[in-house]
Design a protein that fits this description.
Strand order of the largest sheet: 3-4-8-7-9
Shape: globular
Largest sheet: 5 strands, mixed
Number of helices: 15
Oligomer: single chain
Strand content: 5-15%
Length: about 325
């Protein structure tokens, strides 16, 4: 039940934020429809029934389809709902994004959409999934996989991270961060850091830039600037910035700032270091510099972030 209600609540929260912050021309309201094979109420283990809005034959074309998890063994449920499998296959062909949750990914696999692509599922049914769908490249060590318009997640927390990512696509970064802050953001890692992205290695074959990325990750407190980092690797700054952007699709400045902000978030949540000490640990000269970056990226100060995180973690 939660794998159905959680994404709806998060999407609605993103919509509400966007409605108050976007121009009328930019804002699009959500039309959320519950689709089932039959039109009658569906009982759940929670004791709360789900009432579908329509059947698969009546369903509108969808930008996004979320396939919730299945309680216990998914095999009989998948085989008893063949129209759902057919609808998913047809919807994907029309351009829908699909997000499968845990054992709900069996529906997508049954439709043949995951053949030759990476996927994950609930850990308890990973071996069964692998036997039932041998053509799928199962990645049980990842909580999220993405193959173009196909997303699979292994847990509710991972689902929340994907929904935040989708909200950023629909309504922008500010809306996504607003939802993230209100749905236990302190235990989240950025979506991009967790996923198994099909083809990502092939899209970044620049080994020297990969070495520089590793250096940046392990030298956050370094006093070197990016010009000096480029010199260390015998690259001109112009060549370095061009190759970095080409390899990673973001600038080196943005990448290093992102690394430092994530490290600062972790220290604010899990250490008793002062804000000034946190700033120095992640390579900023003073507390003011860290605060300016934090407000630009997260729309709040480091102290405000720590207060929220500590309240949720230890309150």
């Amino acid at each position: 039940m939660t794998s159905l209600t959680l994404p709806i609540e998060m999407l609605r929260a993103g919509e509400a934020f966007a409605k108050g912050h976007l121009n009328k021309d930019e804002f699009r309201s959500l039309n959320i429809t519950l689709v089932a094979e039959q039109p009658h109420a569906i009982a759940t283990r929670s004791g709360v029934s789900i009432m579908p809005d329509c059947t698969t034959e009546q369903a509108p074309d969808c930008d996004l389809i979320i396939v919730p998890g299945i309680w216990r063994n998914p095999r009989p449920v998948v085989h008893a709902n063949k129209l759902i499998v057919k609808w998913l296959k047809n919807s994907f062909a029309k351009g829908s994004q699909l997000v499968g949750v845990g054992t709900g990914n069996c529906f997508i696999a049954q439709a043949g959409l995951l053949d030759g692509h990476p996927a994950t599922t609930h850990w308890h049914y990973a071996k069964q999934f692998s036997r039932d769908y041998p053509q799928v490249l199962l990645k049980p060590d990842f909580f999220i996989t993405q193959s173009e318009r196909l997303y699979t997640v292994a847990s509710l927390n991972a689902l929340a991270d994907v929904i935040v990512h989708i909200i950023s696509q629909y309504y922008g970064k500010a809306a996504a961060q607003h939802v993230e802050r209100n749905f236990s953001h302190e235990i989240r890692k950025p979506y991009e850091e967790q996923r198994y992205l099909e083809g990502a290695v092939d899209k970044h074959p620049d080994e020297l830039i990969a070495q520089i990325q590793f250096w940046l990750k392990t030298n956050l407190a370094s006093s070197l600037n990016l010009q000096q980092v480029a010199d260390q690797f015998s690259l001109s700054y112009r060549t370095f910035t061009r190759r970095f952007k080409q390899a990673t699709n973001q600038s080196a400045v943005q990448y290093w700032q992102q690394l430092r902000v994530e490290a600062a978030k972790e220290l604010l949540a899990s250490s008793n270091l002062s804000i000034q000490e946190v700033a120095l640990e992640v390579g900023y000269n003073d507390q003011g510099h860290l605060t300016r970056v934090f407000k630009k990226v997260l729309y709040q100060t480091p102290s405000a972030y720590r207060k929220v995180v500590r309240r949720k973690l230890f309150g």
